[in-house]
Design goal:
Layout: H1 2-16, E1 23-24, E2 27-32, E3 35-36, E4 40-46, E5 59-62, E6 68-70, E7 72-73, E8 76-77, E9 79-80, E10 82-90, H2 92-95, E11 97-98, E12 109-110, E13 126-129, E14 139-141
Parallel strand pairs: 2-14
Antiparallel strand pairs: 1-9, 2-3, 2-6, 4-5, 4-10, 7-8, 10-13, 11-12
Length: about 140
């Protein structure tokens, strides 16, 4: 009996998304100091509230050479409808340590994160995903005030 109930719940979750969450298509552009940033990882994490403390899974994407991204979450295109915490970082492979790059003695050097902490590790940036979705999730990041 338990196995049948679990299977029915799994099928229902797969049909409507994680925890019954509804998804909407989300895309946009990331710019850094006014130029498209094609090296970004964009993350949307749904923000819960007292009525819905666990609104669903987060979504993410990489930007292309024009700074454009299209969010996905597992098999779902887009993001959960509602408020999200947004984090944008430089892709990990762009920050990877490289042998002999940037040092006079040839020692490995890790590239610096170009995106300010208020967009990633210290982010309080939010974005509201509307029920109809959006192609205007645009983020203009500035490294200088």
């Amino acid at each position: 009996m338990r196995l049948g109930l679990w299977a029915a719940c799994a099928l229902l979750a797969a049909a409507v998304g994680c925890g019954g969450s509804k998804f909407a298509p989300v895309s946009g552009v990331v710019t850094l100091d006014g130029k498209p940033y094609g090296k970004a990882a964009v993350s949307f994490q749904p923000v819960g509230d007292k009525d819905n403390p666990y609104p669903g899974r987060g979504s993410s994407a990489y930007t292309d050479e024009n700074g454009r991204f299209v969010l996905v979450s597992d098999e779902n295109n887009g993001a959960v409808i509602g408020k999200h915490l947004v984090r944008i970082t430089t892709r990990a492979n762009e920050l990877a340590t490289q042998e002999g790059v940037g040092s006079s003695d040839g020692a490995p050097v890790k590239r610096a994160e170009r995106i300010p902490p208020q967009w990633n590790s210290e982010s309080q940036k939010t974005f509201e995903v509307p029920p109809s979705g959006t192609d205007k999730a645009n983020f203009e990041i500035k490294t200088k005030p």
